[in-house]
């Protein structure tokens, strides 16, 4: 089924430093970074121990993220659990 949540997309590109601030504050490390496309928040991926990108979605109900890793362009919807065609 096609994702119906793309209306929440406000940000296409990160406007902030590419760090997971919540991990940085705790002195934790992350694996990959994801950007919330509703508000531009940067969080760490599900392979990271803190999963801040997913926690951000659960707390704020911002379902669409994109990878901000170099060379990665994909966009993902947490609700549909699928990579969206770009
Ligand atoms: Zn969706
Ligand atoms: Zn994190
Ligand atoms: Zn957000």
Secondary structure topology:
Layout: H1 21-26, E1 33-36, E2 42-44, H2 52-60, E3 64-67, E4 75-77, E5 82-84
Antiparallel strand pairs: 1-2, 1-3, 3-4, 4-5
Detailed description of the structure:
The chain is of the alpha+beta class and 86 residues long. It has a single domain (6-84), classed as 2-Layer Sandwich (Herpes Virus-1). It has helices spanning 21-26, 52-60, and strands at 33-36, 42-44, 64-67, 75-77, 82-84. The chain has a 5-stranded antiparallel sheet. A hairpin with a 4-residue loop joins strand 4 (75-77) and strand 5. The radius of gyration is 12 Å and the shape is globular. The structure holds zinc ion (ZN) (3 copies). One zinc ion binds at residues 3-5, 63, 77, 79-80. One zinc ion binds next to helix 1 and strand 2.
Strand order of the largest sheet: 2-1-3-4-5
The low-confidence parts are none
Number of domains: 1
Q: Calculate the terminal CA-CA distance, rounded to whole Å.
A: 15 Å
Total number of helical segments? Answer: 2
Would you tell me the overall average pLDDT? 94
Approximate shape: globular
Total beta strands = 5
Query: What do we call the CATH homologous superfamily?
Result: Zinc/RING finger domain, C3HC4 (zinc finger)
Fold-level CATH name: Herpes Virus-1
Question: Beta-sheet strand percentage?
Answer: 15-25%
* Biggest sheet record: 5 strands, antiparallel
Question: Helical percent range?
Answer: 10-25%
Class in CATH?
Alpha Beta
Q: What's the CATH architecture name? A: 2-Layer Sandwich
The helix-and-strand class reads alpha+beta
Task: Write out the distinct hetero groups bound to the structure.
Answer: zinc ion
How large is the radius of gyration?
Answer: 12 Å
Which sequence of SSEs, written as H and E, runs from N to C?
A: HEEHEEE
């Amino acid at each position: 089924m096609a994702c119906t949540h793309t209306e929440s997309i406000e940000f296409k590109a990160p406007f902030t430093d590419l760090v997971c601030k919540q991990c940085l504050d705790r002195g934790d490390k992350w694996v990959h970074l994801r950007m919330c496309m509703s508000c531009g928040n940067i969080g760490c991926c599900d392979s990271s121990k803190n999963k801040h990108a997913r926690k951000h979605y659960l707390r704020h109900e911002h379902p669409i993220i994109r990878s901000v890793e170099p060379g990665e362009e994909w966009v993902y919807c947490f609700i549909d659990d699928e990579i969206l065609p770009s």
